[in-house]
Write a structure and sequence with these properties.
about 140 residues, 6 helices
Length: about 140
């Protein structure tokens, strides 16, 4: 139960950070990604802050046993393959076209706007399609 509570509180803090930073506003994200137009560099500070805190905390916390679990579940795969390249490209194209990635997409459900629901439905359909076609990528 404690693990569920901490996960919920962490999710709320993450969602608030996304809202406060502007990451849930597709126009702001597209403005950040448009470096050849009217570039909005403000999200660069959000990313630098997030990367800095994550880098330091990852180094510190992965040396200890998790507070609410038996072990850390870290990726073991080290090589870059076509699944990583294609998945990254699709993610980047989708993010650039919509200005939304999965985290802010879920937070945007709280706005009750149809675009947020359409994004999440599309995300889930894409995940299901991948599951059905995964064997062809291996």
């Amino acid at each position: 139960m404690m693990q569920l509570g901490i996960s919920f509180i962490s999710g709320i803090i993450f969602a608030l950070g996304l809202v406060i930073s502007g990451m849930t506003n597709p126009d702001k994200v597209i403005g950040f990604l448009d470096i050849t137009g009217n570039w909005d560099y403000s999200l660069m500070f959000v990313m630098i802050g997030a990367i800095s805190v994550t880098f330091v905390m990852f180094k510190v916390l992965t040396k200890k046993k998790p507070y609410c679990g038996e072990e850390h579940f870290l990726p073991t795969k080290k090589e870059v393959d076509k699944k990583i390249i294609i998945g990254s490209a699709l993610f980047g194209i989708g993010w650039g076209m919509t200005g939304v990635c999965p985290g802010p997409g879920f937070v945007n459900l709280a706005t009750n706007e149809s675009a947020a629901f359409l994004f999440i439905i599309s995300l889930l359909v894409g995940m299901i399609l991948f599951k059905f076609t995964e064997s062809h990528w291996s």
